[in-house]
TrEMBL record:
<dbReference type="GO" id="GO:0003700">
    <property type="term" value="F:DNA-binding transcription factor activity"/>
</dbReference>
<keyword id="KW-0804">Transcription</keyword>
<dbReference type="InterPro" id="IPR000847">
    <property type="entry name" value="LysR_HTH_N"/>
</dbReference>
<protein>
    <submittedName>
        <fullName>LysR family transcriptional regulator</fullName>
    </submittedName>
</protein>
<dbReference type="Pfam" id="PF03466">
    <property type="entry name" value="LysR_substrate"/>
</dbReference>
<dbReference type="GO" id="GO:0006351">
    <property type="term" value="P:DNA-templated transcription"/>
</dbReference>
<dbReference type="GO" id="GO:0043565">
    <property type="term" value="F:sequence-specific DNA binding"/>
</dbReference>
<dbReference type="InterPro" id="IPR036390">
    <property type="entry name" value="WH_DNA-bd_sf"/>
</dbReference>
<keyword id="KW-0238">DNA-binding</keyword>
<dbReference type="InterPro" id="IPR058163">
    <property type="entry name" value="LysR-type_TF_proteobact-type"/>
</dbReference>
<dbReference type="InterPro" id="IPR005119">
    <property type="entry name" value="LysR_subst-bd"/>
</dbReference>
<keyword id="KW-0805">Transcription regulation</keyword>
<feature type="domain" description="HTH lysR-type">
    <location>
        <begin position="22"/>
        <end position="79"/>
    </location>
</feature>
<dbReference type="Pfam" id="PF00126">
    <property type="entry name" value="HTH_1"/>
</dbReference>
<dbReference type="InterPro" id="IPR036388">
    <property type="entry name" value="WH-like_DNA-bd_sf"/>
</dbReference>
<comment type="similarity">
    <text>Belongs to the LysR transcriptional regulatory family.</text>
</comment>
Length: 324
């Protein structure tokens, strides 16, 4: 028989009556089913098997004495009573999660631990941190350049900035996360003025096949760039493989070859005359290969410090993208 609590009972005391509140694990499973739209999706999020979530739901329904989830064709859709109950408990569970995060992180914790791909960190983000510090002097940033995404389940970082390639997306950071796309900048061929002059001022994309090319891990990006511009290389593209975008850009500054980069990485070099937009010189079509994405732990997503940084970062990225 389900419990019945009289309305005259002080609601502050009801919680302590074990018969008046269901098991927390059952509540958590039910909340996930309502939030993610089904038992199987909830099981994946909770990292439980389908049968375990179903058991928790049956337990909660037995406690309540009313059906909360529709079975069969609808496969986990909430009943009318279930939807009402879900709306109430979601607010309470979110408050518990927020209080727990504050307990773990500290009520006055204004430090943000962020990781970022090295090229963007050194060539774009670093020059803008003074502006963020001026706007938010109360927030301390701890920035770690890294080629690998953090494991948010281990609380390695609060947030992460990464370049996600469309053709071969990286495995997303582990853990419950929120993400926002910052920009999808076109990829450009770039080189030093001296190197460009030594190439005889090329006038077409095909002319760049004769130039020394700089690669990251392999020649796939350059191959894709040529093919997008109507050029099919008839030989394997040679050139140094430097593994990191910022190293390829630095080598291009030194006249070692042509690199593929975007304006986030080389915008200041264009302004200073250290690099030339070779794509524009040869009339190449813009090609987009991926996006910059900001990810953060879900429990930190709306905290004041991370919210301030996220809004600032989105604004800065949008302004940069608009310039090019």
């Amino acid at each position: 028989m389900s419990p019945r609590v009289t309305t005259t009972e002080d609601p502050r005391l009801v919680f302590w009556n074990r018969r008046a509140t269901p098991p927390f694990t059952a509540l958590r499973a039910f909340a996930a089913v309502g939030e993610f739209g089904g038992i199987r999706k909830a099981a994946a999020v909770l990292e439980l098997d389908h049968a375990a979530v179903s058991r928790h739901l049956r337990s909660l329904e037995a406690w309540a004495g009313v059906p909360l989830v529709e079975r069969g064709v609808n496969g986990g859709k909430l009943t009318a009573e279930g939807a009402k109950f879900h709306a109430r408990i979601t607010t309470a569970l979110n408050e518990i999660a927020a209080a727990s995060a504050e307990l773990v992180n500290g009520p006055n914790d204004r430090a943000l631990h962020l990781s970022c791909i090295p090229g963007l960190a050194s060539n774009w983000l670093l020059a803008r941190l003074a502006d963020f510090r001026q706007r938010h002097p109360e927030i301390q940033l701890v920035l770690r350049p890294s080629d690998t995404a953090p494991d948010f389940t281990r609380r390695e970082m609060d947030g992460d900035i990464r370049y996600v390639i469309d053709a071969a997306p990286d495995k997303p950071p582990a853990g419950e996360i929120e993400t926002v796309q910052l920009a999808r900048p076109p990829v450009l061929a770039v080189g030093s003025p001296l190197l460009l002059a030594s190439l005889g001022d090329p006038g077409a994309a095909a002319d760049l096949l004769k130039a020394p090319l700089l690669h990251e891990e392999n020649a796939r990006q350059w191959t894709a760039w040529f093919e997008a511009n109507g050029v099919t290389p008839d030989h394997e593209l040679a050139g140094h493989r430097l593994w990191h975008a910022h190293l390829a850009v630095d080598a291009a500054r030194r006249g070692e070859g042509l690199a593929l980069a975007n304006a986030f990485l080389v915008g200041e070099d264009f302004k200073a005359g250290r690099l030339v937009d070779v794509s524009a010189r040869v009339g190449a079509q813009p090609i987009v290969m991926g996006a910059y994405v900001f990810s953060a732990r879900r429990d930190r997503w709306r905290t004041p410090a991370l919210l301030a940084f996220r809004r600032w970062l989105v604004k800065e990225a949008a302004e940069e993208a608009a310039r090019w």
